[in-house]
Specification:
This protein has strands spanning 14-19, 26-31, 45-46, 53-54. The protein is mainly beta and 64 residues long. The termini are far apart.
Length: 64
């Protein structure tokens, strides 16, 4: 089966869309869902329009 060994749930970061804090364009971010990293960016997110970067580990609640 193609999905054998695939994990989903708290171990899998959740994809979310936000507005870029710099230019307002749509950005896709991956949010960690487990343990002490829950609610933080799982990896760096870069705006395709202006290049603004949000660092991994940044709490989603601090992104405005």
């Amino acid at each position: 089966m193609a999905f054998e060994g695939c994990q989903e749930g708290k171990a899998t970061p959740k994809l979310q869309e936000i507005k870029c804090p710099k230019c307002g364009a749509d950005m896709e971010i991956f949010v960690a869902m487990q343990d002490s990293q829950a609610g933080t960016l799982a990896e760096d997110a870069v705006c395709d329009k202006c290049g603004y970067t949000i660092q991994a580990g940044t709490p989603v609640s601090e992104i405005k």
